[in-house]
Amino acid sequence: MSLLSQFTASEITVIDGKATAAQVLEEVKHDVAALQQQGITPCLAVVLVGEDPASQVYVRNKVEKALMVGIRSLEFRFPAELSQTELLAKIDELNADQSVHGILVQLPLPKHIDETAVLERIDPKKDVDGFHSENVGGLSQGRDVLTPCTPTGCIRLLKDTLGDLTGLHAVVVGRSNIVGKPMVALLLKENCTVTVVHSKSQDLAQLCQLGDIVVAAVGRPRMINASYLKTNAVVIDVGINRIQENGKNRLVGDVDYDDVLPMVSAITPVPGGVGPMTIAYLMKNTVHAAQLQHAQAHSTSV
Ligand code: GUN
User: Fold this and answer.
1) pLDDT of res. 1
2) 245 in helix, strand or coil?
3) Which residues make Cβ contacts (< 8 Å) with residue 196, sequence separation at least 6?
4) What are the tens digits of pLDDT across the range 66-115?
5) Phi, psi values for residue 194, rounded to 5°
């Protein structure tokens, strides 16, 4: 008997990421209030280089959400011509500023800037993206470090839906540094059996059929159809793909939602599934970063 059959779905659950994100933001507000009682106002600095329209929207949303939950936010916008040296100097300044708890450099960066050099310059304790190698390594060792927002949000959705994930077989489709790889580490931490497949995998559909849980993070519109899934799988769709259909712009996931819906036990829609969780967990990480820095300052002062 599959472990997943313990979760007997009488009907299909459409996982409401908006509602869960709202709940996470309430938790953040509560944590912000507790920090404020200790004289700390969590602060997030967001850095944007260049004029990419999508990045501008993402940054605006992050800053607005921070203000909503009582997190102070600083926004630094630079022209695309900014040199790497100047950007690194800005990061050094934010690292040294004790009133700043989280630093996020919006990606992608212009081509003349070495992304890795920039991400490695951020103080790991302020790395609210969880992209610094110290945090990546810490996560793979199962330590309590800052972890990437999107996969961390996916784990929350899975645990809210299924409870304990122990022993479930999760298939992660995609091996990006932002989602796929940290997702694997987070699922292992939850005691899942994990298979990771990618564009060069053979028998992709067959491998996906092993999954009690399937996490799709490939960036290919509607790639995962019913032939990829076992009956009653729980599907997390991380894809956000803009397509043109019948003359209209549409946002679709990596999963063919209408095709798989009859056979899943639970699924995240696009939009309204994983998307809202990313920003909510950025806020959660900012508070976590403030707590880490406060604990460290306290332990070194006694
Ligand atoms: N660009 C697209 N997604 C992300 C993200 O999660 N963090 C940052 N810093 N930039 C991004």
Assistant:
1) 47
2) strand
3) 171, 172, 175, 180, 181, 184
4) 999 999 999 999 999 999 999 999 999 999 999 999 999 999 999 999 99
5) -120, 130
Residue nearest to atom 3 of ligand 1 (CA): 107
Contacts of 120 (CB under 8 A, 6+ apart): 132, 133
> Measured in angstroms, how far is the CA atom of residue 279 from the centroid of ligand 1?
10
Ligand-binding site membership of 77 (annotated): no
| Segments of the chain scoring below 50 in pLDDT | 1, 9, 302
> What is the rounded distance in angstroms from the CA atom of residue 296 to the CA atom of residue 294?
5
pLDDT for position 9? 46
153 is in an annotated binding site: no
Catalytic status, residue 106: yes
Tell me the three state secondary structure of residue 242: strand
Candidates 163, 181, 164; CA nearest to 172 is 181
**Sheet with 102-105, side-by-side order of all strands:** 72-78, 43-49, 102-105
Domains of the chain from N-terminus onward:
39-123 (3.40.50.10860), 148-275 (3.40.50.720)
Question: What is the pLDDT, as a whole number, of residue 298?
Answer: 81
Nearest Cα neighbor of 162 from 233, 215, 231 is 233
Q: Which of 286, 270, 293 is nearest to 149 (CA)?
A: 286
Q: Is the CB of 104 under 6 A from ligand 1?
A: yes
Mutation pick for ligand 1 pocket among 46, 58, 65 (CB with most ligand atoms within 8 Å): 58
Q: Can 129 be counted among the known catalytic residues?
A: yes
Q: Which of 31, 65, 106, 181 is catalytic?
A: 106
